[in-house]
C-alpha cells in the first residue's frame, strides 16, 4: 500500500500531488480492504484527510517558495494540521467526586477520541490523555504522510 501511494507523488508538483496521492490511497485501501475491513465512509475519511494534510504541506512549501524562505519541517506542519482539527465536545457529563461535581467533556482530533477535559469544581481543568481509544492507523498515516512529503520535495 505504501509504495502504491508513494508512486503517485509528483516531485515538486505541490498543487497536483495531494489529490493524486489521496486517490492512490483510496484505491489502495479498497484493494486491501478484505484484510482491513473498513467501511466506505472510513476509506473516504482516511483518503480525504491524507489529501488535506498533504495540501497543508504543499501550501506551506508554496508560501515559503514565494517568500524566498525555508519551508517549515513537515512535522511542524503536521502538528499544526492536527491542532487545527482538535475539538472539545460541548456536551458536558457531570460526575460527582468527593462531594463536588466534575464536568467532563470528550476531546477529539481528526483521528478520533484522544482524551478528556475534566473541569473540577475549584476551576482547574485537567487534560487527560486516553491512548486506548486512539486510532490504530494514526502512526501509519503519519509515517506515510512524512514519506510522501519527503518525496514531494
- H/E element sequence: HHHHEEEEEH
Distance between the termini: 21 Å
- Residue runs with pLDDT of under 50 for 5 or more positions: none
Secondary structure tally, helices: 5
Structural domain count: 2
Mean pLDDT: 92
Helix fraction, binned, reads 40-55%
What is the global morphology? flat
How many whole angstroms does the radius of gyration measure? 19 Å
Helix-strand category: alpha+beta
Tell me the total number of β-strands.
5
Strand content: 15-25%
Biggest sheet details: 5 strands, antiparallel
Explain what you see.
The protein has 153 residues and is α+β, with helices and mostly antiparallel strands. The protein has two domains: 2-85 and 136-152, no CATH class; 87-132, no CATH class. Helices cover 51% and strands 20% of the residues. The protein is built from five helices and five strands. The protein has helices at residues 2-7, 17-36, 40-66, 74-83, 138-152; strands spanning 87-88, 93-97, 100-109, 112-119, 125-129. Strands 1, 2, 3, 4 and 5 form a five-stranded antiparallel sheet that branches. A hairpin with a 5-residue loop joins strand 4 (112-119) and strand 5 (125-129). Helix 2 runs antiparallel to helix 3 (40-66), helix 3 (40-66) crosses helix 4 (74-83) and helix 3 packs parallel to helix 5 (138-152). It is flat. The model has no long low-confidence stretch (mean pLDDT 92).
What would you say about this model in short?
With 153 residues, the chain is of the alpha+beta class.
Give a topology summary:
Layout (H helix, E strand, L loop, with lengths): L1 H6 L9 H20 L3 H27 L7 H10 L3 E2 L4 E5 L2 E10 L2 E8 L5 E5 L8 H15 L1
Antiparallel strand pairs: 1-3, 2-3, 3-4, 4-5
